[in-house]
């Protein structure tokens, strides 16, 4: 109930009035049943605009740091993250990565929509980067379609390092669902997982026409000198 009140009564109307978000291909999202929405990632605001513009409830797996802040700002962030359907996960690797995958599978097991950023982190420069294979593993284990999503101009209104968004119009393009049923039962094969992941990234690149670089976004960030 809290999710829907925030979406349709409290946050949603204000955000729509200010940023006038647009959407193309909304009907490509399944009307029922579990599916993964795989999106490029330009801004922290991606996790706000996408759930706002689709009819069904969806959840994102978000790093736990967003839920542990102190004071009024920390409280406001927690409320906002929960209102936008985000679930806290530990992204430190190892067992934490396995727990994150299991959390995603639980969402899909309920027949819900799960939002995933296959790049693993926000793009440091607006380009599209190599996808992580956790998305493919979830799709094959849960046996669900993957719907490619391209966010447009969210990085312009709220780039990395900015806490208050600029006023501007943003949008999203939803592509046709990708069916990987031919690979069911092969989720332990790392070559299959890489192949599925690369197919998803190709679909995103074609849909959004972003420049693609076959390295991980986190690697690019690590190479950059501190600001």
From TrEMBL:
Key words of the record: Acyltransferase, Transferase
Pfam families membership: Acyltransferase
UniProt xrefs under SUPFAM superfamilies: Glycerol-3-phosphate (1)-acyltransferase
Annotated InterPro entries: Plipid/glycerol_acylTrfase (IPR002123)
Phospholipid/glycerol acyltransferase domain sequence ranges: 35-154
Top-level taxonomic group: Bacteria
Matches recorded under CDD domains: LPLAT_AGPAT-like (cd07989)
Gene Ontology MF term list: acyltransferase activity
PANTHER family in the cross-refs: 1-ACYL-SN-GLYCEROL-3-PHOSPHATE ACYLTRANSFERASE
Record's protein name: 1-acyl-sn-glycerol-3-phosphate acyltransferase
Species the sequence originates in: Microbacterium memoriense
